[in-house]
Structure prediction request, 1064 residues.
Amino acid sequence: MAAGPQGPRLLVLGLLLCVLGLSVSQGRKLLLVPLDGSHWLSMHGVIRQLHQRGHDLVVLASVASVYITEGAFYTLKRYPAPFKREDLEASFISLGRAVFENQPFLQRVVKTYKKVKKDSALLLSICSHLLHNKELMTSLAEGNFDAVLTDPFLPCGPIVAQYLALPAVFSNALPCSLDFQGTQCPNPLSYVPRLLSFNTDGMTFLQRVENTLVALLENFLCSAVYSPYASLASEVLQKDVTVQDLLSSASIWLLRSDFVKNYPRPIMPNIVFIGGINCASQNPLSREFEAYINASGEHGIVVFSLGSMVSEIPEKKAMQIADALGTIPQTVLWRYTGPRPSNLAKNTILVKWLPQNDLLGHPMTRAFITHSGSHGIYEGICNGVPMVMMPLFADQMDNAKRMETRGAGVTLNVLEMTSEDLANALKTVISDKSYKENIMRLSSLHKDRPVEPLDLAVFWVEFVMRHKGAKHLRPAAHDLNWYQYHSLDVIGFLLAVVLGVVFIVCKCCVFGYRKCFGKKERAKKSHKSKVQ
Amino acid sequence: MAAGPQGPRLLVLGLLLCVLGLSVSQGRKLLLVPLDGSHWLSMHGVIRQLHQRGHDLVVLASVASVYITEGAFYTLKRYPAPFKREDLEASFISLGRAVFENQPFLQRVVKTYKKVKKDSALLLSICSHLLHNKELMTSLAEGNFDAVLTDPFLPCGPIVAQYLALPAVFSNALPCSLDFQGTQCPNPLSYVPRLLSFNTDGMTFLQRVENTLVALLENFLCSAVYSPYASLASEVLQKDVTVQDLLSSASIWLLRSDFVKNYPRPIMPNIVFIGGINCASQNPLSREFEAYINASGEHGIVVFSLGSMVSEIPEKKAMQIADALGTIPQTVLWRYTGPRPSNLAKNTILVKWLPQNDLLGHPMTRAFITHSGSHGIYEGICNGVPMVMMPLFADQMDNAKRMETRGAGVTLNVLEMTSEDLANALKTVISDKSYKENIMRLSSLHKDRPVEPLDLAVFWVEFVMRHKGAKHLRPAAHDLNWYQYHSLDVIGFLLAVVLGVVFIVCKCCVFGYRKCFGKKERAKKSHKSKVQ
Prediction:
């Protein structure tokens, strides 16, 4: 058949589409159920890439969402929430404030527990509102989605995926080793440090005891947050559902980790490590930041940010920090939205926002003051910048511990540190060459990989859409209960058999002995009695 | 500095080298310590690729080697052996013959044990000869190698690597779960079937008991083969070395497996799956084979090979097979070097060698009769060809079981099968469409991967050369003994503490009770006695 006069034009258009990677025929439909806050921000790279590859993305978010807003790469589907956006904002702000409250330990624990319970109830109520929104759920069921991409940190997405009978990709780790429970991944207590234990993988006997106790405790702590989701799921799905059922439903887990930041440990085939995914987007600096760097001279700059969730700190602490920053010759770019500390030195520039990864990638950047959130740590590693770490909450203490043990940074207790401590830490990581060498070594290991983490994440989301899940990666361990998994029934049975055999053999020996020697003994006795 | 008149020419040459990927400056030196036989043949793809990427490869082989010969991609370094090439050849031939001897079970076990012991002694003696060859070992020590790539199936290479203090990449799995012991990889008996147990990952209680017993037994069986290497290593390295020490020395393990052939299970970060690596080289068919296919008409062809190690079978069995092959309408291409069976039908063509992967890739290929070695299975999967499997030894029975449970083939017992069994099996896999559908589904899952297995293997070998190992992937479990690893000391300590606390609390209660009520009781008693 002749191509007709439009043939060459269509051919060129086809080639153009191929070159752009916009294979329209492969476009599939993905439902995103993200978690508000920094977790949502960290999904942007994957979302953009999936959109560019021709997929149709629908993002579910409540009207109270703070960070999840309209975007060019997806359709935002809002649903009503049982409270206002301001309530959620207040919750985020109070989270940031709480970490700077220097209270006695027990008071702190009680307050944290109350806050976690209050916030969880708030977020659970949004989830309940979503799942009971018949109209929305029906429209989603008719949406012909191929898969769900969700953050299981609060397992609302997994319930939505099960309700819609869609395969799910989970895009984050969970506390209390729930992610490893969900994947049936062995988690040896002897060398895998539990989060918040602040141990490394080389533990003394007492540290291993502590690690075991933390593991026992965390089950109780997480149960308070996660078990209400199991009840909600049971009600919505009209069958008995456990937290384990919800978490084991993932086809693929995308974890923001690797074995440069974390310690090597057992993994499962459906766990994909995408640590460092946020380093992918590196852009040229704006004129403003370029000018700051140029003005910093030979000493270069220090980048300072406590993450997207904490941009204000108490005035006294801010002044203490400002004092320390004034003692170093570098220019400090500090992301800070609070009132300007009165003692701020000339070398310190306050900014409402900073292009963290782009600044860290500049050769004049000498150090990075960070709250050691997973993203910041990876941006430090990717760009090979030594760190001064001020962990605030969640996994940040453990992240800091990992970097410190590798000689790539110094950790400070933000509540207890003095101005001098911070100044000394900064001078140490900048002047002691070993910090730069160590972070550069980590950087070269981290970046030496067969596939970029962003490509890996996109590949596996597409894989799940293409194959309607990844059943071939689901271990049969999910079909066993705990004593079967640990072979306790088999061990019991084999022990019973061995003991049974030993018992029968002993009985036979005794019987045989009596048969053989019993007569003689009786004969002897009767002989004796006759003699007497 | 000016470039001088030769500048442009050098520039062009440099660009040319870059385009060809022959970055001379990146060329490193790799020492290969392979195992003779089919294991060596399976390394060819990686070797060729490493050579093309500008690395300098030196292959160590004894003068008695059968399969390891001079090659264009490497320098062969021969060393004397304590026996002749003919002895090794005889050993290979007898291995092929032994599998067709239909003897009573016990006689078979004793014979196999004797053969394994004799062959291991033979191969151990080559290793000992190599390690005691002072001149050769000195020249290797002076060879400035960056790493060792070795097949640890018989752990001579690991000893060489330790002697030369070089990082090692292990290129094969091991029997008796020694590979998982070597990597400290959890290996739950409850759903990870042991080799030679012929179980799947979904086991009944009795199958799990069997799996546990096989695991207990295999330790004893493998100890006979592997412990002499520990003694040899201890002598050569002049320190106490265990088999575990030798196997845990690998930086990276390249395993010819994936989760399409094998069942999902825990893995470790330094295990890289390269199953299907042999499918990479697909070439056009020669005129001879193209002619066979063209002559086969609409029915197409069946490819039949029992692997590189078994090319002859007893006459009676060959005639039985020939009989069955004559009953199908397809043309059968049979790799067979033995005498032509007198009853060979017209549709069956005997060939001394066949381009297995290329033939399986032809759309007219209807079925594949294979001994279900790992390579054959992967070529069947890659090309989506249903299989009739006649496992002979080693992991072949388990490979066949895996394919059979996935509905991609039929397994036959080569000793017990009748001519009719084979004919029926062939007709089934060709006419029952489910076999084709299942193998095509497996094929699409297997081939849908972010990196090709050959590229992955090359990447990790180069990674180890670049970074002088992969220490960041070595789990801290290697530094624990068995009871520490399983936290038995911690559990014992915590139990002791709990029991101690319970004991003290009980004692206190008893003491308190006596203090409070003892007097009253005594008073009561004395009152009673007075009354009496």
Observations:
- Confidence is low (pLDDT under 50) at residues 1-7, 13-25 of chain B.
